Every structure is written in C-alpha cells, then in structure tokens.
C-alpha cells in the first residue's frame, strides 16, 4: 500500500508549526553571501635573509566581518538550519571571546533572527561595538569558566538555540573540500615554486579549523605537517603533551580567539603533528614585527601563529632545508588598539615584548636563529597520530 500526498495533508495539524520556506530562504541568503564574497588573499612575505624558505600568510581579515571566524559562523548557521535547529524567529545564542560572535551576529541579521553573545567582560570594546553594529546583544560575564553554562542557560530561558561553536566547529565544516580554508590554500599555491608546504601553522580556539586542516591533509595524502601554536594560558598544549583531554587551565587566555580553559570537543589532537606553547610577550612581539613588515596592524592570535612559523623556518634554515610554510592572518589589529597595541595595557599585565622583538628582527633581517626557547612537543603517538586520546 502506497502513501500518497493526501495522507500527509490530512495530518498537517500534527506537523511542527514553522515554515520550511523560511528555512530555504535563509539557507539561500547565506549561500548567496558566499557567492558574493571573493576568496581571501594568500600573501607571500618576502624575507631575503631566508633564502629557500617561502612564507605565506592567508589573510582572513578581509572577510566581510573581518576575521577567520566568518567561515566558521557561516558553516555553523548552515549546519543548524539544515538540522532543523533554527526556524523563523529563533533566538540564537553563542559563547564566544568576540570574533565568532561578530560573524554570527552578521549572519543572524542577514536571516532576521535575534542574536545574543555570551562573552567575558574583558572582550575588546571594538568587538562589542561590532556585535551591536550587526544587531546582536552582548551578555557579559566576569568568570570566563561559566561561559558555556551561561550560554546554554540563556538559550533555554529564551527558548532559543545554543550554537555551541566549541562542540560543533569540527563537524559543521566539510573537511573533504567544498572550498574550505585548506583547499583554498592549496589551490592558491599551485603556481608557486614550492606548492606543497612543509608546514601549516594554526592557532586553536575551538579547534575546528585545525581539525579541518589536519583531516584534509590526510584525505588528500599531502606530506604537509600541521603545527598548532597554543598560547600561554590554555589547556590545549597539555592535552596534547600528556594525551589527556581532562587537562584544564584556571587562568583565562589574554590572547583573544585562541587558547581555552579546557580541551574543547572540536579539538582533534590526533591530526596534529606538533604543538608549541607561545608566551604572551612573544605573541605581542611577533604581532608587532609582522605588522611593521605588512605596514598594517594584525591581531594577537596572528602573532602567536607567526612566532611558531618563525621557529619552524629557523629550524629549516639550520638544517639547510628549502621549503614553504603557511599561516593565517586571523584578524586585523584595529580591534586591539586599546589592548595589545597600548603600552599602558601591556605594562599593567607585566608583558614586555621588547626582548622577543629584537630576536625576531635579527632572524628576519639576517637569518640568525632566535635566542629564546619555547615549549614544544611532537605527536607522541606516531607520525600521523593513529591512536586516540583517552
């Protein structure tokens, strides 16, 4: 016996009371935005002192909302819409240190749903203003450790949807391709002297982008290795070093967008080949040095990435190896004029980037290996990380 259309029409009263047409329109609007958005630039940083080492910077600051998180926010909205979790009028709530919330506010405004960002009170004023610009509301809290629970609780109170980037980042993006960030990098490198990089360097916030990169490298069988640059106050590095997902860090990261108090569900250590833990002073130093070379300011997490890349480049130079390395410009430094670029802010937190800056400048201008050391560990499982963490 076949079931005809009339059977479904007869039972219409039992179906959820929302318009599928609205969801279709929301998905179409987000897809249209992607079609209007050109790919971000892959910049080659010219460093004559490092002969045979090609350095590339994927400039994610040129997205409409100004950061790498634009890609993630788009994927998270499409994931939630296509899973039936966001309908017409559904309030959307996110836990964020700022940049993801800015991008999600943009997409929420695009499809006409309310947006609420639960963030630490220390989030930069520029990011708070950007969220408001896109119609989002900021819910600021004093204890960053309560970020997750407060976001989930607010979503329940609003009868809304908690986007939960820290859980869903690694599954919302198609790591096999579909113009994800790493596929874009390899496409843009095709005409370069060394089109297959030795290393891709990435920071970890949710862990979703690093998961996408690591999976794609294996899927396409590239020999490229993935290095994660973690920050001073973060649980990711110890999670990787000790193969223990229960590791935590009580003190919040000073570098917005990277570093977490726990090993987030979206962080996949088994696809990471190496990790470095970068001191905050070294992050700020690398941010300053790179900003001067680019003649425009970059954000703090970009400094974290660049410091780790310079460490790898120094090792390659010392070993007489030629090759290429890629990292990301995560966002613009304009968002941090009142924090990382303000001497008074740094002094109040006992951060002195000067010694690190001097070493980095010597390296980039004369090829001398930097004289400082940083915590560093390679994948303790095997060359490609076959086993899982407990």
UniProtKB/TrEMBL annotation:
Keyword Ribosomal protein found: no
Domain Tryptophan synthase beta chain-like PALP: 40-330
Compartment annotation: Cytoplasm
Residue numbers bearing the N6-(pyridoxal phosphate)lysine modification: 69
Keyword Lyase: yes
Reaction catalyzed: L-cysteine + H2O = hydrogen sulfide + pyruvate + NH4(+) + H(+)
InterPro entries named among the record's database cross-references: Cds1, Cys_Synth/Cystath_Beta-Synth, TrpB-like_PALP, TrpB-like_PALP_sf
EC id: 4.4.1.1
Enzyme type, top EC level: lyase
Cofactor: pyridoxal 5'-phosphate
GO biological process: L-cysteine catabolic process to pyruvate
Purpose: A cysteine desulfhydrase that generates hydrogen sulfide, H(2)S. The H(2)S produced by this enzyme may modulate central metabolism.
GO MF entries: lyase activity; pyridoxal phosphate binding
Key words, A-Z: Cytoplasm, Lyase, Pyridoxal phosphate
Organism: Bradyrhizobium icense
Recorded superkingdom: Bacteria
Pfam family, one: PALP
Protein name: L-cysteine desulfhydrase Cds1
Family: Belongs to the cysteine synthase/cystathionine beta-synthase family. Cds1 subfamily.
Major localization listed first in the record, in broad terms: cytoplasm
Gene: cds1
Coiled-coil positions: none
GO CC list: cytoplasm
């Amino acid at each position: 016996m076949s079931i005809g259309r009339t059977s479904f029409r007869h039972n219409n009263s039992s179906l959820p009371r929302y318009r599928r047409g609205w969801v279709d329109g929301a998905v179409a609007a987000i897809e249209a935005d992607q079609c209007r958005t050109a790919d971000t630039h892959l910049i080659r940083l010219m460093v004559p002192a490092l002969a045979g080492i090609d350095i590339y910077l994927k400039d994610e600051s040129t997205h409409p909302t100004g950061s790498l998180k634009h890609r993630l926010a788009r994927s998270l909205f499409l994931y939630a819409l296509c899973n039936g979790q966001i309908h017409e009028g559904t309030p959307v709530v996110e836990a964020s240190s700022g940049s993801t919330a800015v991008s999600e506010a943009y997409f929420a405004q695009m499809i006409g749903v309310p947006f609420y960002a639960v963030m630490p009170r220390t989030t930069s004023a520029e990011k708070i203003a950007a969220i408001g610009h896109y119609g989002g509301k900021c819910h600021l809290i004093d204890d960053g450790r309560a970020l997750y629970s407060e976001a989930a609780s607010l979503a329940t109170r609003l009868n809304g949807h908690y986007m939960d980037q820290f859980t869903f980042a690694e599954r919302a993006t198609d790591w096999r391709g579909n113009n994800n960030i790493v596929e874009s990098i390899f496409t843009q490198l095709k005409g370069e002297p060394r089109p297959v990089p030795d290393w891709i360097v990435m920071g970890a916030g949710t862990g979703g982008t690093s998961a996408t990169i690591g999976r794609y490298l294996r899927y396409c069988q590239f020999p490229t290795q993935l290095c994660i640059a973690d920050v001073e106050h973060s649980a990711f590095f110890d999670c990787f070093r000790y193969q223990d997902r229960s590791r935590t860090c009580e003190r919040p990261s000073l570098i917005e967008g990277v570093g977490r108090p726990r090993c987030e569900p979206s962080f996949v250590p088994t696809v990471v080949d190496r990790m470095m833990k970068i001191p905050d002073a070294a992050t700020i130093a690398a941010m300053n040095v790179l900003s001067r070379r680019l003649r425009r300011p970059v954000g703090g997490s970009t400094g974290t990435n660049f410091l780790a890349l310079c460490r790898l480049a120094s090792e390659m130079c010392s070993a007489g190896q030629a090759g290429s390395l890629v990292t990301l410009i995560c966002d613009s430094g304009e968002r941090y004029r009142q924090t990382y670029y303000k001497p008074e802010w740094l002094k109040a937190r006992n951060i002195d980037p000067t010694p690190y800056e001097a070493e980095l400048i010597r390296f980039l201008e004369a090829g001398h290996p930097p004289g400082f050391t940083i915590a560093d560990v390679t994948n303790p499982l095997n060359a490609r990380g076959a086993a899982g963490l407990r």
